[in-house]
Amino acid sequence: MTRVLMVLTAARVWTLTDGTEHPTGFWAEEFVVPYATFVEAGWDVTVATPGGKAPVVDELSLGIAGGLPGTTKKLRARLEELAPVLEHPENLYEMDADEFDLVFYPGGHGPMEDLAYDEFSGKLLTERLASGRPLALLCHAPAVIAATVDDAGRSPFAGRKMTGLSNREELLNSFARKAPWLLEDKLKELGIAYDKGLIPLRPHVIVDGSLYTGQNPQSSRKLAHALVEALA
């Protein structure tokens, strides 16, 4: 059976430049859609967070920003069904990524707060990239590679082709104007060959060898299906 390690943020706020804490968490669609796709494919999915802390959903992802009312109603219902999984995640720091066929990081602003600075996660990502085994990062999740930067200021992801939420998409959120940094800028700063779709908020997936990235929440389904097809 194909095994997936799904790494969720444990952050509940995103600290902005003026010191305010914006409530956040994981983005509903980016967790629910890939999780359901993998389970439907018969895969075993393990959810883990830093320290094994119960993650929280970003409530914005269950409002107008998350889609039409019918869509967000279904997302909320699915999250309620998955409450036992989310309330008792595994401790990321006790996970061995080599035991999994796929490592998958969903987004939300949460990873900008915790996983982007998490040394254990950074080591896991560095080793996973070097192994040549599948690694997938969705929307804001590519922020986690900031934790892979070495003492010389270089990331092993430098030169790889990736996507992630664009500045244009991010700045649709008024509070993002107070962000410490924007994802697109950070990826370019790290030497990533950043790529984005021509039209914002449309599905866009980049595959560079065993590295898979999706640009935005709308890319959740396309990314998950690309992974299922690749690992079949």
- CA distance, first residue to last residue: 10 Å
Assign the CATH class: Alpha Beta
The CATH architecture is 3-Layer(aba) Sandwich
Return the domain count.
Answer: 1
Strand content: 15-25%
| H/I helix tally | 8
Summarize the structure.
With 232 residues, the chain is of the alpha/beta class. It has helices at residues 28-40, 69-81, 83-87, 110-113, 119-131, 167-170, 183-189, 220-231, and strands at residues 3-7, 13-15, 21-23, 44-49, 90-91, 102-105, 135-138, 161-162, 193-194, 205-208, 211-214.
Structure write-up:
With 232 residues, the protein is of the alpha/beta class. It has a single domain, classed as Rossmann fold (3-Layer(aba) Sandwich), CATH 3.40.50.880. It contains 8 helices and 11 strands. It has helices spanning 28-40, 69-81, 83-87, 110-113, 119-131, 167-170, 183-189, 220-231, and strands at 3-7, 13-15, 21-23, 44-49, 90-91, 102-105, 135-138, 161-162, 193-194, 205-208, 211-214. The chain has a 7-stranded mixed beta sheet with strand order 5-4-1-6-7-11-10, with helices on both faces. A hairpin with a 2-residue loop joins β10 and β11. The longest helix is centred in the first third of the chain and has 13 residues, at 28-40. 46% of the residues are buried. The mean pLDDT is 97.
